[in-house]
Amino acid sequence: MEHWPALELASTIRHDGEGGVTDDLATAHGTTRWIQAQADLLADHLPAGELTADERLRSEITELRRSVRALFARAVSPAPPSSADAQRLMPADQALAHLNAVAAREPVVPQMRWLPESAPAARLLSAENDPNVRLLAALARAAIDFLSGPQREQLRACTAPRCVRYFVKSHGRQEWCKPSCGNRARAARHYQRQRMATDSSITPS
Ligand SMILES: [Zn+2]
Fold it and tell me: How many A from CA of 10 to the centre of ligand 1?
């Protein structure tokens, strides 16, 4: 399965396994842990060494996440968005402006590297010294790439009971983000059908 930083960012709001929703970025400590877990995805854009989130970086990342989730909601529409924040989505034009503004905070220059015996590779050279700005801008660029790429059309909000995840459909008929969600959704449908059958059997005809 492929991993996209934008999807990983959106997925920090998730089902807690008990019917509620939990936020991996609720604290600066949790945010630091999340950034470290993304190290591979963001390696090209971050300075070496560990990046520790403070409250300011945490709130900037969660604000960026709000804009990403609002644009994910737009991408899956007219299907319903994730229920986690469906009632308090940032307006799409505001989300777009915020995403672009965060991406614009880091001036970058495309560079090509082509070592003998290896394939040419493109990378972005940064003129930004602040690692927090680099991280934010890298996440924003990743979201721009994601939403303007072919995977946008495969983006779905999982419709399983209680699930709040967005996911990228990897095969034609996939309806749920993971097999356990499919099992839960099928069980719920089965239960509903049985209840309807019982209801109609006691309704006088
Ligand atoms: Zn799911």
Answer: 13
- Which residue reads 């995977």 in tokens? 151
Confidence band for 48, pLDDT divided at 50, 70 and 90: low
For 93-146, how does the pLDDT look when each residue is reduced to its tens digit (9 = 90+)?
Answer: 999 999 999 999 999 999 999 999 999 999 888 889 898 999 999 999 999 999
Distance 85 CA to ligand 1 centre (A): 15
d(CA 205, CA 121): 72
Cα of 160 vs centre of ligand 1, distance in Å, is 5
Q: What is the DSSP letter of 112?
A: E
What would the CATH number be for the domain defined by 5-113+120-201? Answer: 1.10.3300.10
Distance 205 CA to ligand 1 centre (A): 39
Beta strand segments in 29-131, E? 108-113, 121-126
Interval between CA 79 and ligand 1 midpoint (Å): 15
Is there a contact between 27 and 58 (Cβ–Cβ < 8 Å)? yes
Rounded distance from Cα 96 to ligand 1 centre (Å): 26
Q: Where are the domains of the chain?
A: 5-113+120-201
